[in-house]
Amino acid sequence: MNLVLKILARIGLVVTIVPSFIYLFGSMELAEVKATMITGTIMWLVFAPVIQKQSQEQ
After folding, report:
1. pLDDT digit string (tens) for 23-39?
2. If you average pLDDT over residues 37-50, what whole number do you get?
3. DSSP assignment, residue 25?
Protein backbone atom coordinates (compact mmCIF):
# COMPACT_ATOMS: atom_id res chain seq x y z
CA MET A 1 0.00 0.00 0.00
CA ASN A 2 2.81 2.37 0.89
CA LEU A 3 4.51 1.73 -2.45
CA VAL A 4 1.29 2.50 -4.32
CA LEU A 5 0.91 5.81 -2.47
CA LYS A 6 4.49 6.77 -3.27
CA ILE A 7 3.99 5.99 -6.94
CA LEU A 8 0.74 7.97 -7.10
CA ALA A 9 2.34 10.97 -5.38
CA ARG A 10 5.24 10.96 -7.82
CA ILE A 11 2.92 10.60 -10.79
CA GLY A 12 0.98 13.60 -9.49
CA LEU A 13 4.20 15.63 -9.27
CA VAL A 14 5.22 14.65 -12.80
CA VAL A 15 1.74 15.46 -14.15
CA THR A 16 2.06 18.87 -12.52
CA ILE A 17 5.46 19.72 -14.02
CA VAL A 18 5.62 18.10 -17.47
CA PRO A 19 2.64 19.82 -19.18
CA SER A 20 4.32 23.21 -18.90
CA PHE A 21 7.23 21.94 -20.98
CA ILE A 22 4.90 20.29 -23.47
CA TYR A 23 3.06 23.61 -23.84
CA LEU A 24 6.37 25.41 -24.29
CA PHE A 25 7.11 23.27 -27.34
CA GLY A 26 3.61 23.83 -28.74
CA SER A 27 2.31 20.27 -28.51
CA MET A 28 -0.55 21.00 -26.12
CA GLU A 29 -3.28 23.63 -25.87
CA LEU A 30 -3.49 25.91 -22.85
CA ALA A 31 -6.84 24.54 -21.67
CA GLU A 32 -5.45 20.99 -21.69
CA VAL A 33 -2.35 22.11 -19.80
CA LYS A 34 -4.45 23.78 -17.11
CA ALA A 35 -6.70 20.76 -16.66
CA THR A 36 -3.75 18.36 -16.53
CA MET A 37 -1.81 20.50 -14.07
CA ILE A 38 -4.82 20.87 -11.77
CA THR A 39 -5.28 17.11 -11.78
CA GLY A 40 -1.62 16.55 -10.96
CA THR A 41 -1.69 19.16 -8.21
CA ILE A 42 -4.70 17.55 -6.59
CA MET A 43 -3.05 14.14 -6.77
CA TRP A 44 0.13 15.51 -5.21
CA LEU A 45 -1.72 17.35 -2.44
CA VAL A 46 -3.75 14.26 -1.55
CA PHE A 47 -1.02 11.62 -1.54
CA ALA A 48 2.16 13.45 -0.44
CA PRO A 49 0.99 14.36 3.10
CA VAL A 50 -0.12 10.78 3.69
CA ILE A 51 3.32 9.48 2.76
CA GLN A 52 5.05 12.10 4.92
CA LYS A 53 2.89 11.21 7.89
CA GLN A 54 3.66 7.52 7.46
CA SER A 55 7.40 8.15 7.29
CA GLN A 56 7.28 10.28 10.47
CA GLU A 57 5.50 7.52 12.37
CA GLN A 58 8.20 4.96 11.58
Report:
1. 999 999 999 999 999 99
2. 96
3. T
In order of 7, 20, 22, 51, 57, the CA distances from 2 in angstroms are: 9, 29, 30, 7, 13
CA distance linking residue 41 with residue 20, whole number of Å: 13
**Under a CB-based contact definition with an 8 Å cutoff, are residues 42 and 12 in contact?**
yes
Domain ranges of the chain: 2-51
Cα 46 versus chain centre, distance:
9
- 55, 44, 52, 49: which is closest to 10 by C-alpha? 44
The pTM of the full predicted model, rounded to 2 decimals, is: 0.84
pLDDT at position 58 is: 74
